[in-house]
Design the sequence.
């Protein structure tokens, strides 16, 4: 098991200690920064607060990166692509080191994220019959930019959507759905997403088996 270190936008108003985040990031099993980002699905914490914490966090990550703690960044984005992309662009961090996790935005916004240069990762939401635009977005992502995940304990994929909690093994349903959607043979897709995750997070060969 690996983990990430960061301040989630929905916790922007909670007490935080940047030194704690740095200490967590120094752990050998910490492979990423985040989740960090913006969430406009909820009105709280206020968006100005979310944005201020995000900008401060990215500035700190840039400094820590320069100090030798280079890690990819897991981005949480809900209804916030137009606000978020300029902030990420201005961060000074390379675009290909960001992944928009649990992508639930529109195909047009997927296009913007891809043009920016980030990776995109899909959860069980992509399998939901009431989220066809997310499936449409998943068709647009090039092979070397796609990943999939559980986002457990919520978002169990079809056909086990009603089973709670979502568990890591259920990611197979999401991955198989994505392979079929993209008309990619299963073995090829599995190899692709495994390789993408290993490369992006710097995980050792054989991870995920
Ligand atoms: Zn998230």
Sequence:
């Amino acid at each position: 098991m690996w983990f990430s270190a960061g301040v989630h936008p929905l916790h922007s108003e909670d007490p935080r200690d940047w030194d704690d985040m740095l200490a967590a990031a120094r752990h050998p099993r910490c492979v990423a920064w985040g989740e960090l980002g913006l969430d406009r699905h909820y009105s709280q914490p206020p968006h100005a607060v979310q944005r201020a914490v995000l900008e401060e966090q990215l500035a700190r990550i840039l400094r820590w990166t320069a100090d030798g703690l280079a890690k990819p960044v897991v981005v949480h984005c809900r209804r916030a692509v137009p606000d978020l992309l300029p902030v990420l662009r201005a961060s000074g961090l390379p675009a290909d080191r960001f992944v928009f996790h649990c992508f639930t935005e529109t195909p047009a916004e997927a296009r913007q994220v891809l043009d920016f240069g980030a990776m995109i990762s899909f959860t069980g939401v992509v399998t939901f019959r009431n989220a066809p635009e997310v499936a449409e977005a998943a068709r647009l992502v090039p092979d070397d930019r796609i990943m999939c995940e559980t986002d457990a304990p919520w978002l169990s994929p079809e056909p086990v959507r009603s089973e709670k909690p979502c568990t890591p093994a259920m990611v197979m349903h999401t991955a198989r759905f994505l392979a079929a959607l993209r008309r990619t043979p299963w073995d090829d897709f599995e190899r692709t997403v495994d390789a993408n995750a290993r490369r992006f997070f710097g995980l050792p060969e054989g991870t995920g088996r």
User: Anything to note?
Assistant: The domain at 94-202 is CATH 3.20.20.140 (TIM Barrel). Residues 76 and 125 are 15 Å apart (CA to CA). The pocket of zinc ion is lined by residues 35, 76, 101-102 (CB under 6 Å).
